Amino acid sequence: MERTSPLGTLDIRTQGWINGFIGVVIFSGSLPATRLAVMEFDPVFLTMLRATLAAVLGVCLLWLFKEKRPARQQWAPLVIVALGVVIGFPLLTALALQYVTSAHSIVFIGLLPLATAVFGVLRGGERPRPVFWLFSILGSLLVMGYAFAQGLSAAPVGDLLMLLAVLVCGLGYAEGAKLSRSLGGWQVICWALVVSLPVAAPLSLLLAPSTFSGISLPAWLSLGYVALFSMLIGFVFWYRGLAQGGIAAVGQLQLLQPFFGLALAAGLLHEQVSLGMLLVTVAVIGCVAGAKKFAR
Questions:
Q1: Which tens digits make up the pLDDT trace of 247-257?
Q2: Within 13 Å of residue 93, how many CA atoms lie on the same side as its CB?
Q3: I need a surface site. Which of 124, 180, 225, 268 has the fewest CB within 10 A?
Q4: What is the model's pLDDT at position 255?
Q5: pLDDT tens per residue across span 157-175
Q6: How many CB atoms are closer than 10 A to CB 149?
Q7: pTM of the full predicted structure?
Q8: pLDDT value at 149 more than 60
Q9: Phi, psi (deg, nearest 5) at residue 41
Q10: How many Cα atoms occupy the beta-carbon half-sphere of 59 within 13 Å?
Q11: Axis crossing angle, helix 276-293 with helix 130-149, rounded to the nearest 10
């Protein structure tokens, strides 16, 4: 019998795709917001402060809902999640955005679905059908091909940092999704934030600038976004979606993230986005649909 949602209207896999899509939309604002923030905040300080603020909220949620502590065997995966998505990805992208624009860095997210799928196989025990990999690789190639068509970055350090960010993030996504099956989606990110707090909080104080008087409102709003939405709320939907719909399958929704992010980069940061992006977007949507169909 097919499992259904609590309301009895949507099956579990459909719920997973909806939750995953919401998570991707939220994450799409992360790189443009980080780009704005690192113009005025030190990238390491920004990473530690956003983790600290999100962790405080996470602690409040865990206390409010009286959540039990994770089992002993769950702490090691939580450390991996914390290193991957709480510290690793935010720090590496913040450092990269000192060298490249958010529009350029966003296209590297096109590799994230493939990385997530690979780690979903290695860590989550998933076995997508061969045709799935065809659509997954094709979608990644489309996004990366578009990036190369715009010209290689003049800052190879920024590109290398983005590639490393994709790898650690893919591992963190897969590990968190696997853990969320037993611990719960929002609980995973909250406990991962708690794990990071003993490191993030002291470093936030240590690296804090002597004065915040010169920080603009857009920078503060960007900090608020990456702390509240990118670091906490987005993961509530994302990990739930991965657990419900499958790590490899729902992870393909990340192919759409570069295009949402580029739209934001154009609208908020006035970075140039070519008309050719529309054609690539349509092709990528086709790859996501194909991957969904042949994921299992």
A1: 988 988 988 88
A2: 32
A3: 268
A4: 81
A5: 888 898 899 999 999 999 9
A6: 10
A7: 0.86
A8: yes
A9: -110, 145
A10: 11
A11: 170
Give the integer Cα–Cα distance in Å for 32 and 76. Answer: 32
Whose tokens are 């997530």? That residue is: 116
Q: 184: how many CB neighbours lie within 10 A of its CB? A: 18
* φ and ψ of 160, to 5 deg: -65, -40
- Say what the pLDDT of residue 179 is: 94
179's tokens: 């853990």
| Tokens 């990110």, located at residue | 189
The HSE-up count of residue 195 (CA atoms within 13 Å, CB side) is: 22
Indicate if the pLDDT at residue 244 is higher than 70. Answer: yes
What residues have CB less than 8 Å from 1, skipping those under 6 apart?
none
Report which of residues 276 and 52 the model is more confident about: 52
Place of tokens 């860095």: 105
3-state secondary structure the chain: CCCECCCCCCEHHHHHHHHHHHHHHHHCCHHHHHHHHHCCCCHHHHHHHHHHHHHHHHHHHHHHCCCCCCCHHHHHHHHHHHHHHHHHHHHHHHHHCCCCCHHHHHHHHHHHHHHHHHHHHHHHCCCCCHHHHHHHHHHHHHHHHHHHHCCCCCCHHHHHHHHHHHHHHHHHHHHHHHHHHHHCHHHHHHHHHHHHHHHHHHHHHHHCCCCCCCCCHHHHHHHHHHHHHHHHHHHHHHHHHHHHHCHHHHHHHHHHHHHHHHHHHHHHCCCCCCCHHHHHHHHHHHHHHHHHHCCC
Q: Up-side HSE of residue 40: CA atoms within 13 Å toward CB?
A: 16
Average pLDDT over residues 96-113: 79
